[in-house]
Amino acid sequence: MKFTAAISALCIASAAAFSPAASVGRSTALFNSPFDGPSLQYTGGTDPNNKNYVKLTDALQEADTERRKAKEAAEARERAAEIRREERQKKIDYMNNMPDTEPAGTVDEFMFKEGVQDQLDKLDNDLVGLIPVKQRVKEIAALLVLDKMRRKLGFETSVPSLHMSFTGAPGTGKTTVAVRMGQILAKMGYSRRGHVVLATRDDLVGQYVGHTAPKTKEMIKKAMGGLLLVDEAYYLYNASNDRDYGQESIEILLNVMENNQDDLVVAVAGYKDRMDKFFSYIPGMMSRIGNHIDFPNYSADELVAISEVMARDLEYDIDPAAYGTFKDYISRRMELPYFSNARTVRNAMDRARMNAAIRTFEKYAINGENGGVCTVDDLKSIRAEDFQVLVDDIVNADASKRIFA
C-alpha cells in the first residue's frame, strides 16, 4: 500500500510540473530562449510611410532591375553571336561558290593605286646599290599587296609580323629604308600615320629608379601609328650589370611588340655582330621580329654613284674628270678607321663644296677676274681639284692622325 501511494504521488507531481502554467514559468526561469518573444514578429505592415516597408520594396525593385538587365545582356550577346554565325556562314558559302578564276584586280593596279610603287621607286632613286635590301623590302611590299587583294575577295587575313631588324655598318641606309617602310605601311593601311621615330638608349632609359618607364612609354606614344626605330639597340642591355635600367625598357618594348603590333612597328638597328649577341641575351626580342634585313657595305663604285646622287639633289655638277679623283679618295678612305659609307661620302661632298666655294671666291672676289662677275657654271661646278684637297690630306697626314682625313 505504501509503495502504491508513493507511485501515485510521483505521477501527480510530474503532471503538475508539465502542466501549461508550470511550463511557462519554467521556460522563463530556466531557458530564456532567444528565439521567443517579439523579434520573430513582423509588425511593419504595408504602410508606404513605414521605413522598413520602403527599404524592402526598393531592394526588391533593385533586384528585379538587375535581373532584367542581366537577362537583356545575355539576350544581346546571344543575338550578336547568332549574327556572327550567320555572317560567317554567308562568307563560307560565298567562298565555296566563288570560282577560282574570280578576278581580284591586277597587282600593278594595287601597287600604283595604293602608292606602293611610288615608294619603291623613290627607294631605288635615293639608295644606290643595296640590292638585297631592296629585294627584301619589295618582298614585304608584295605580301602586303597580296594580303589586301585577299581581303577584297573575303579571304581570312591576319596582320603579318612587321617588326624588323636592320643590321649593318653606319651609313648603309638603315634610317632611309625605315622611313620608306613607314610610308609603305601607311599607304597599305597597316599604320595610321606612317611616320618614323628614331630613339637611342638615352631616349628610352632613365638615370634613376622610376625614370625609365615614363621615358620609354613617352617614345612609344610618339611612335604609335607608325614605326619606332631603336638605333644601336644592343646598348639597352648591359650584361655586366643586372641592375641596369635598360632591362625595364626592353620589357616594356617586348610587351608593346606583342600586344600593339597592329598599331606600332618596332625596328631595331645596329652592327650585325653586336645585334646577334643582343638577341642571344634577349630571345624574346628575336622571336617577335619577323623581318631581318642585313645592309652590306658599299663598294667604291657605289659610293661614287652616291656622290653623283647627292650632287644632283643639291643642284651641283661634278666635272666628269673629277670622278676619278673622288674614287681615289674613297678607296684610300675605306682603308682608314671610322669609315661610314654614305656618311663619309656626304662629309666629302660638303668639303668639296667648300673647296669649290673658296676657289670661286678667290678667283672673283679677291683676284677680281671678269670684273668680279661669276657665271652659273662657277656656282654649280665641282672639279677634280676640289676633291684633290681631300686626297692630299690623307697622303700628307701623319700615320697616327690619318683617321681624321
TrEMBL record:
CDD domains: AAA. InterPro entries: AAA_lid_6, ATPase_AAA_core, CbxX/CfqX_mono, CbxX/CfxQ, CbxX/CfxQ_RuBisCO_ESX, P-loop_NTPase. The keyword Signal applies. Residues 165-296 form the ATPase AAA-type core domain. Residues 53-93 form a coiled coil. Keywords: ATP-binding, Coiled coil, Nucleotide-binding, Signal. GO terms for molecular function: ATP binding; ATP hydrolysis activity. Residues 324-387 form the CbbX AAA lid domain. Residues 1-17 form the signal peptide. It holds the Pfam family AAA_lid_6. Belongs to the CbxX/CfxQ family. This is AAA+ ATPase domain-containing protein.
